[in-house]
């Protein structure tokens, strides 16, 4: 900062001069014409006040430094003079800085799938959460923007930018309610800790711990986000990798600019929606296991237990009693799954459930009279329904599954009519359910696997 001195430059001009390196530099010029009109020309920016960021501030020369003198002379040469102090009449108003900002194309997108790493953001006294469903400590996900989340337009004015720290980026919490929750449903509130915004869990097993933290580079506006605990995205089962963001108007980036005489201007910009957290949805693959359901029409028979709904179970006329003529239950699941629950961990109940589905209703199987069997899904049970013949619309067999273990239960409740080889041999791709095949050779029935032969009793009976 340099103080200026006043230099009289003739009867009608006063200059304001500063000396830099022994050289006088004119800062302003004050002149008056013959009619008394005063002109003030400012050639260089003047410093108003130190450390007072007042956009309307102004300065005037001190009283008693510059006067405007009016002199009159009559026809006899007699003069008279009067003067006023010009100092209070001259004001130099500041050219304050200005800044506006709009959202940029940048975003911080986190994915709970990771990878994780060592945490670097300082959350102060708030302990960072340690997700029990993710190996290791530190963050489970993080993101760093390439540039600032906002694009500022800055004008420093005649004073120019401050020598240091002319543009500074910062974070502010505009609403503590983040709108986010950890996986157990506990809410997350925002706190500003030494310039870092920390998402603090309220309630539950992680009460008071940091679920995530957001920091910003004050010079560049680059934002870093670290996530320490998995978040609750939604309760839908068909959106395994959906994203959530902070509630609108909860987090802002503040751009503060400072000019050469410490005047400041700010722009506050909401960036809540620019930070997103993607779910780490579960994944599962499965391969066929060695377990099977192998049925044998030789029996033994028993009381049917599988509920086929409104579909009437067939009653084989050639087998004594009602109910099933054969049944099998696998020892284990028919498939072996490989499961990854991800950062959210398994559900508190029914985290793994097995079920049956019909990929193609054409089973490829027939009852003994040649009528085709089509598959229907009835309340989770696959029912083989006869199409045509004496048993049209009846259940030839049914397959159920344990939802918790995947153990399959297949029961043959079909009827058999004589006169042609049986066609009950077959395998379902999904269920691995097999039916033993028997055929009539000459006047005897035999199992293909070499069962003891039975006498073929004619067109009305089938041996078991």
Tell me what the structure shows.
By secondary structure, the chain is an all-beta fold. The protein folds into 3 domains: 5-93, no CATH class; 98-280, no CATH class; 286-455, no CATH class. It is 0% helix and 43% strand. The chain has strands at 5-8, 13-20, 23-32, 38-42, 58-59, 67-73, 79-85, 92-93, 98-103, 108-111, 141-148, 150-155, 167-173, 177-181, 187-193, 196-202, 210-216, 222-227, 243-245, 251-258, 264-270, 275-278, 283-288, 293-295, 326-333, 335-340, 362-366, 372-378, 381-387, 395-401, 407-412, 426-427, 433-435, 438-441, 444-447, 454-455. The strands form 11 sheets. Strands 11-18-17-16-15-14 form a 6-stranded antiparallel sheet, with no helix packed on it. It has a 6-stranded antiparallel sheet with strand order 25-31-30-29-28-27, with no helix packed on it. A hairpin with a 7-residue loop joins strand 16 and strand 17 (210-216). The relative contact order is 0.11. Residues 413-464 have low confidence and may be disordered.
Roughly how many Å apart are the termini? 113 Å
Radius of gyration: 45 Å
The biggest beta sheet reads:
6 strands, antiparallel
- Overall shape: rod-shaped
Mean pLDDT: 81
Our estimate of the beta-strand percent is 35-45%
